[in-house]
Amino acid sequence: MKDQVVLITGASGGIGSVTAAQFADAGAKVVAHYNSQQEKAERLCKKISGAGHIVLGGDLTNPHDIDKIVEKTISTFG
Questions:
Q1: Number of domains in the chain
Q2: Angle (deg, nearest 10), helices 14-25 and 38-47
Q3: In this structure, is residue 27 part of a structural domain?
Q4: Which terminus of the chain has a smaller tally of CB atoms within 10 A, N or C?
Q5: What is the extent of the structural domain holding 20?
């Protein structure tokens, strides 16, 4: 998984945070999505191994927010 980019939806929650940590431990760059718990997602990205992870918020029931998340991920990681 080294240098692969993974988008983890709900990264501020239990399953999402554990999943994000596992991918980071495997060398992936993590895009940690949150809907309402920005501080938890930011703490997660500071805690997990590696560097270059980003935090993005948005409501996944809103197509505009989904587009923003995808566009920011692509502009950051290519």
A1: 1
A2: 30
A3: yes
A4: C
A5: 5-60
